[in-house]
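Dear support,

Our group has been running a series of protein-ligand predictions, and this particular one with WTA is the one our PI (initials K.S.) wants archived with full inputs and outputs. We had some confusion internally about which version of the output was final, so please treat the block below as the authoritative record. The input we submitted was:
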Amino acid sequence: MSGNSESLENLSTENRSFPPSSAFATQANASADLYAHADKDRLAFWDEQASALNWHKKWDKTLQWDSPFAQWFVGGQINASVNAVDRHVAEGNGDRIAFHFEGEPGDTRTISYAQLLADVSKAANALTEIGINSEDRVAIYMPLIPEAIVAMLACARIGAIHSVVFGGFSADALLSRIQDADATLVITADGGFRKGAAFALKPLVDEALKGETNVANVLVVKRTGQETAWNEGRDIWWHDLVNRQNPTHTPEFFDSEHPLFILYTSGTTAKPKGIFHTIGGYLTQAAYTHKVVFDIKAETDIYWCTADVGWITGHTYMVYGPLINGCTQVIYEGTPDTPHKGRVFEVIEKYGVTILYTAPTLIRTWMKWGDEFPNKFNLTTLRLLGSVGEPINPEAWMWYREVIGGNNCPIVDTWWQTETGAIMISPLPGVTATKPGSAMRPLPGISAKVVDDRGVEVGNGHGGFLILDQPWPSMLRGIWGETERYKETYWSRFPGIYFAGDGAKLDDDGAIWLMGRVDDVMNISGHRISTTEVESALVSYEAIAEAAVVGAADELTGQAIVAFVILRGGTAHADGDALVKELRNHVAKEIGAIAKPRQIMVVNELPKTRSGKIMRRLLKDVAENRAVGDATTLADPNVMKLISEGLKSSKDED
Ligand code: WTA
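Confirmed final output from the archive:
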């Protein structure tokens, strides 16, 4: 193979495979024939999935595809909130618990579906009273408390488009999102609890609204009780307005293609993109994927997705998917290390969580903290584990399986994006024999392929670009107000085909391995090497919990690999130079000498976005001795300073 013609080298191999247990397979929601069934007639398959929802008026046409613009379930009329809440009460399940809410300080609330219906109805009546309707956009800027979900559902109920802005974002970020969507209402809270203290949100809203906007009101939930500056005439306490409303509300129904929400994804430097989704197709795929990928049994499962509502994972797998499927969930307001590093495990034990959906960044953090925290709690109620957000390194996958899952839970590594709206590539639990680190294959109904730079499919054993060549129901309908940017960003690299920037490879069995963003691919002596493979090789060394690698300019090889690693708690290892030498040799042994890092830095933290993705761009600045670029989307702004200082001192020693 000539390295130069490959879009991405295929370096690592994985021989471990975990077939489903027969006990799990027997009771699974998914069955192997789903693939053939969907292949036979894809649109009929999606019709069937859409039929699981409550429609006010059935659609006339399944798909109208004027590439790159899709309409699904054309002519249908539907209400998202009715599907998420009312139907369960109507079916006699009003007493079922929708949410076990756990506040960070330890306060709890239990909310049944009947209670949720009353809360959403009151909130919908409240929004109507202050003049919000289906022509409006509503910005929601809240901590993870039940009112955030009630607010989303109330908007959906009256056809107002919600735009949730993550509560950790700055006033500037909030303002630009309010302006871009031209929101007329902001729903927020006085503050929330994080890392053992109350933080304030309302002052950031006040700051943002000094900018030019059409916001007429700010609706404020009292969460912390802290002193809150008040703008008479504009600001309204949630409890003053909502509590006195009628707990019944007669829903209207909206066109299947009416927008349900806008969610901004931050590009690395450019202006955030307002990805928007519409009701019918989005709900169809949210409900279907949640049912088959998480094997949900509404009567018995206790499901916990650890994402925030500010991300797409919170939208699809905490709000719409699980509620449509009528299941019982845990939601937790705070951070995983408050008041101790076992908090998540304590909550699993407390509520008897059966299904856990989380991100590799948290799994690797747990590995770093050490096994003693999970080992202190009873996690045996767990029966299925999920991962999302980044490639999961095989060793982190194995740790998740053994230490959290007690070798007893299938793991679903789910690939998708804000843009795809719902899971696209994932094992089916009970059907798929999983490989640690692979998302395996597209779900029934989805067509995903790996192609080379000319758009030609690569064979097994080769790497390239991940593309989606058939429209899917929960696909983004565009970038809010930016049609040209939508075409340019997603549909121009391979004309008529969706490409959203990920590299992937097919192994010898045709299983898909996600290889990170193609912007991060390194070019070492003409070989294109994915950051993911080198990072996974580093994490497969026992003493390493987490790793990030970048390609830094190098006179000899074009680029050379610079690695940043975090050590694992409680593991013995060589020190300093000896460790670095062992690690370099380990990488060479695992995936080849070409991938040997030029330099390895031991650090305590890595720069991550607030949704937990490693920001390699900043590490590259450090590795190339540049001033660190725009770091405003970092979860912890101090991290880069510590890393740069550490790197300087390690160079001095060389
Ligand atoms: C990455 C999150 C590997 C990928 C739902 C994608 C993943 C981006 C996986 C979207 C996975 C997400 N394996 N990479 N299982 N899941 N990604 O919009 O690069 O926050 O393009 O959506 O995360 O991130 P977003």
